[in-house]
Amino acid sequence: MAENTADRGTTSGGRPARPDLAAMIVPLGRALMAAEQPVLDAHGLTMWAYSVLLHLDETPIRTQAALAEAIRADKTRIIAVLDDLEERKLIRRQPDPGDRRARLLSLTGEGRRLRDAVQAAIQQGEERLLAQLPAADRNGFLRGLQALSTLPELMPRKPGRETR
Amino acid sequence: MAENTADRGTTSGGRPARPDLAAMIVPLGRALMAAEQPVLDAHGLTMWAYSVLLHLDETPIRTQAALAEAIRADKTRIIAVLDDLEERKLIRRQPDPGDRRARLLSLTGEGRRLRDAVQAAIQQGEERLLAQLPAADRNGFLRGLQALSTLPELMPRKPGRETR
DNA sequence: AGAGTTCATATGCATGCGCTTACGATCTGC
DNA sequence: GCAGATCGTAAGCGCATGCATATGAACTCT
């Protein structure tokens, strides 16, 4: 399978014109997460907890399993996270009156406030980095990144099940 | 110096204009790695092994520890990887005549060939994704990404020790 | 009403990885 | 020539994660 079909794409012929995307993006992601960590620590949030806060606000979530899948966490592993968040009154976990097996998840006002504060701090740090890019590249980077992170082929949900 | 510019900064109270960078980049990195995986499997390479092949060619490496740090792997963990690559005649591991503790690492011709084949296949897949972006965004994305992945503040080497 | 399914939860297992220690061979400084 | 540092290698610990199973409550379909 070693077709060296060097049509457009990589440079025509030999050495690659750029490093692999993954080779740049994965370390970048690690660095960004490392940069977030102190902020999260300062607010007593794990990354999973922050993920939960982020996702809960965007879309009302009906079951914990759906939330787990949305943030790509293990269904059984977010339970402790939710326990903690609930105990700290950052989220609510009410049994669905229509289906008492499920727990309706929602942010409390305080949860929303914390979420906003943390996200503001994080994005402020990120902007400091983006500011080092030329404006044109920065905008292209952000647009390209947002486009790529919503590509369905790239962001495969678990095959088989629909979001209802 | 951290004053944000007039555009879509996040400091002034409102909803964020974009998701957190890490929230987009980390899943994107995962997806890219998942996309690479079949290619690597087809050639019997782990990600670490591929990392080694990539890095070995760019810069001559004198010690395994230096290589490990370069690819951000654990010093002790790449040993098995190197053993395998050497056995398959993809790399050479010669004792440095000047310092017989160290092992000079280099790619063999076959190693270089495999590296090229795998990288071509990987980048070809990546280009298929990038092709879905508008050309302007794609270029900005790539430029921004390359710029960010070389920012020293973002890509911290191990604190404390310098490359000597 | 009963079978099968879905949900939240608890638990256990295996894996991969970072970090630490140990050890023998070797190099460097004194 | 000896003490201490460095290199490669081996082994083990601990943590986070993914995957699987089990259980009890509740829901659905027939």
TrEMBL record, chains A, B:
<dbReference type="InterPro" id="IPR039422">
    <property type="entry name" value="MarR/SlyA-like"/>
</dbReference>
<protein>
    <submittedName>
        <fullName>MarR family transcriptional regulator</fullName>
    </submittedName>
</protein>
<dbReference type="Pfam" id="PF12802">
    <property type="entry name" value="MarR_2"/>
</dbReference>
<feature type="domain" description="HTH marR-type">
    <location>
        <begin position="18"/>
        <end position="150"/>
    </location>
</feature>
<dbReference type="GO" id="GO:0003700">
    <property type="term" value="F:DNA-binding transcription factor activity"/>
</dbReference>
<dbReference type="InterPro" id="IPR000835">
    <property type="entry name" value="HTH_MarR-typ"/>
</dbReference>
<dbReference type="InterPro" id="IPR036390">
    <property type="entry name" value="WH_DNA-bd_sf"/>
</dbReference>
<dbReference type="InterPro" id="IPR036388">
    <property type="entry name" value="WH-like_DNA-bd_sf"/>
</dbReference>
<dbReference type="GO" id="GO:0006950">
    <property type="term" value="P:response to stress"/>
</dbReference>
